[in-house]
Amino acid sequence: MNQNEKAKAFGALHRKGDPVVLYNIWDAGTAKAVADAGTKALATGSWSVAAAHGYPDGEKLPMSVLVETARSITAVIDLPLSVDFEGAYSTEPAGAAANVAKLVDVGAIGINFEDRVVEGDGLYPVEKQTARIRAIREMAEGKNIPFFINARTDLFLAESDLSKHAGLVDEAIERGRAYAAAGGSGFFVPGLIEPALIEKICAASPLPVNIMMRTGAPDLTALAKLGVGRISYGPGPYRSMMEKLKQDAAAIYSRL
Question: Which among 82, 105, 104 has a CA at the least distance from the CA of 34?
Fold first, then answer.
């Protein structure tokens, strides 16, 4: 498949009630392992890519390293690749679009794009975030790529008190609709695990909803029944692999 075909195929995988499942990767080696396991598409996790290079999350990883990571994956795996691009390393629409263009140029067909102010506090106002999404969409259209913008809201991830999540649903729905109108392709609500709230957002969202697996989240079958269109695993795979690595190493060194 060429890049345009990969982008179309990736978008088609997002079906409400029949979600695409993305076991997040962080380099070409993990991309090959997950591809060999049978996935139809690949997606990086920002936390994992940063940690694999010794950096914390939050755009601390140099963007050039992230772009090169994407290049190395698309060079060896012929599957659609979405990149977790956090806030696109820019607060301004033009800068965000220019940075995303670098990922398009190395073969990526989608991004996660969050509304959290990475180097500040809180979330961008809806008007500012929609301007940023719109700029990215216009850039992608200029390159004739049906680029998948997974518009992420951090409303739920930023609120650790799960009892308060119900009070955030209306704002989340408002943001999701605005992001769709601006050119978003999917709506990502990490941190949300309450089935009734997930179902409410899926029913109201014009975009396929992405849920991130975490402790307490419904299983894959349950999420599909709630209307979810995409399921991802975030930093879970990296943490699991690193824990296994430490355990294996500790078993060896404990004998010395």
Answer: 82
Spatial CA neighbour of 88 closest among 30, 140, 133, 37: 133
pLDDT (average), residues 117-122: 94
Identify any residues that bridge with 149 across adjacent strands, giving them in sequence order.
Answer: 111
- Average the pLDDT over 152-167 and give the result: 98
What 163-169 contacts at long range (C-beta under 8 Å, 24+ apart), as own/partner pairs, is 165/191, 165/192, 165/194, 165/197, 166/194, 166/197, 169/197, 169/200, 169/201
Domain ranges of the chain: 3-254
The pLDDT > 90 percentage for the chain reads 100
* 48-67 pLDDT per residue, tens: 999 999 999 999 999 999 99
Q: What is the largest CA-CA distance in the chain?
A: 61
| pLDDT value of position 12 | 98
In angstroms, the CA 90 to CA 135 distance is 12
Top-tier CATH class for 3-254: alpha beta
CB 40 within 8 A of CB 34: no
For 151, the 3-state DSSP assignment is strand
Integer angstrom CA distances of residue 226 from 8, 161, 165, 205, 211 = 25, 22, 17, 12, 11
Pairwise CA distance, residues 154 & 240, whole Å: 24
Quick one: tokens of 9? 């195929």
Beta strands (DSSP E) in the chain are 20-22, 42-43, 81-84, 110-114, 148-152, 186-188, 209-212, 230-232
For residue 20, give every residue at least 6 positions away whose Cβ sits within 8 Å of its Cβ, in sequence order, or none.
13, 14, 40, 41, 229, 230, 231
